Amino acid sequence: MPPAPATAPSPPIDGGRSATALAVARGTQRLLLSMGFACVCELPLASGRRADLVALGGEGTVWIVEIKSSIEDFRADHKWPDYRLHCDRLFFATAPHVPAAIFPEDAGLIVADGFGAELLRDAPEHRLHAATRKHMTLAFARAAALRLQALADPHGRFSDG
Questions:
Q1: For residue 9, is pLDDT > 80?
Q2: According to the lineage, what is the superkingdom (predicted)?
Q3: Which of the two residues, 12 and 37, has the higher pLDDT score?
């Protein structure tokens, strides 16, 4: 039987994000790595939504970071409260030019650029149920593994969506 036709791997979807949002994501990931977290961008959630950044700590802690590149970006988005159902802590990450005062006090706040980030406000903890934690950990692991596999075999057929 002939092999299935190869397709180019699809990189993680960036949702058409702006250069500012991509820079904020990069700087935020650098901060989270320094704090002991591994990150996956654009992770599909069981709710059908897609989280900008999901960070997994060594002890199994799950954080979600919602990236907002402008005031308009924040005001247009009403889905972020749903992310609390999928993480232990919820953060916003934004660029230095966006006023910190627009972000809700009941979420953490990170200010970042393409080189690094600073945690301005920690997020309150709301521990996940065990079944949700397991689901998130497996979704994270599967997405990360498939993305690595796609890099190793660029002509393979891989998808994490």
A1: no
A2: Bacteria
A3: 37
37-44, strands of its sheet edge to edge: 37-44, 50-57, 62-68, 89-94, 108-112, 117-121
Of 87, 107, 90, which is closest to residue 46 (Cα–Cα)? Answer: 87
- Residue 8 is given by DSSP the state P
pLDDT digits (tens, 9 = 90+) for 50-88: 999 999 999 999 999 999 999 999 999 888 999 999 999
State the Cα–Cα distance between residues 4 and 117, nearest whole angstrom.
44
Nearest residue to 68 (alpha-carbon basis) of 120, 103, 42: 103
Q: Each residue of 17-37: pLDDT tens digit?
A: 789 999 999 999 999 999 999
Residues in the chain: 161
- Exposure b/e, 85-108, CB count within 10 A at least 16 = b: bbbbbbbbbbbeebeeeebeeebb
**H or E element: which one contains 108?**
strand 108-112
- Antiparallel, parallel or unpaired: β 37-44 and 50-57: antiparallel
Cα pseudo-dihedral 60, 151, 155, 23, rounded to 10: 100
* Rounded CA Rg of the chain: 16
Q: Which of 158, 154, 69 is nearest to 112 (CA)?
A: 69
